[in-house]
Structures are given as structure tokens and as C-alpha cells.
Design brief:
With 119 residues, the chain is an alpha+beta fold. It has 2 helices and 5 strands, in the order E-H-E-E-H-E-E. Helix content is 22%, strand content 27%. A 5-stranded antiparallel β-sheet has the order 4-1-3-2-5.
């Protein structure tokens, strides 16, 4: 009987471990916690491939969730850079998460942004 253990194994991705397409980003923005700042951020998003989907107030600003406005597609670097450039023209942004923010909920990460009311 041969009990040799292979030196390598073929790694077949499991369905629960395959990467999901990135459809949203979270950006930390230093801005006043006022309705005007939220209107500004919403208007900035409307000029890009994104829409402002939710916000969480943080110290000295907002944690903003931007989702792709289109029904299909994934976040590309050029789209993200355009959003950050436009935000940076008005407010200072200090962080960005292009990962899977929704997947991090409940795993010791930052709380999910509250959804915005329909305009």
C-alpha cells in the first residue's frame, strides 16, 4: 500500500472563496457634519460613475459609501481616481476602501453606513 503524500495539491477555489466583483467603495471625507456637506457629496457623486449610497458620521467628517450607478460593471481604478479627484476639489479625503465593505460587516470592522433617504 502506497501512503505517499503528494508534495503539492491542486487548489480549486470553493464557491464561498471566489472573489466577488467590487461594486462599491467607502471613502473617509473630512467635511462638516451638515446637510450642505451631504448635498455637496451627493452632487459630486452624480458627476461620476457612482452614487452616494450611505454615510456614517465620524470624528470631523463622514465615512461615505459610494456605489456604482450602473446596474452592471465593477469599480475600475480610473472611476475611483475620478471620484477622489472630485471629492478632493472641495473636501479633504483621508482614506478609501475598495475592498468588499459589505462583506466586512459583523467581523470587527467599522459599522456600515446608514442608507440615505430617497431624494
Amino acid at each position: 500500500m502506497n501512503t505517499a503524500v503528494p508534495l503539492w495539491t491542486l487548489a480549486i477555489p470553493r464557491a464561498d472563496r471566489t472573489p466577488r466583483p467590487v461594486r462599491a467603495v467607502e471613502v473617509t471625507v473630512l467635511a462638516p457634519q451638515t446637510p450642505n456637506a451631504l448635498r455637496d457629496l451627493g452632487a459630486i457623486a452624480r458627476g461620476t460613475a457612482f452614487r452616494l449610497a450611505g454615510v456614517t458620521p465620524i470624528d470631523r467628517g463622514w465615512r461615505c459609501r459610494f456605489e456604482l450607478a450602473a446596474e452592471v460593471g465593477v469599480v475600475g481604478d480610473a472611476q475611483l481616481f475620478d471620484l477622489l479627484r472630485r471629492v478632493g476639489e472641495i473636501y479633504r479625503w483621508t482614506g478609501v476602501d475598495k475592498g468588499h465593505p459589505a462583506a466586512a460587516a459583523g467581523h470587527g470592522h467599522a459599522p456600515q453606513p446608514a442608507p440615505l433617504a430617497a431624494e
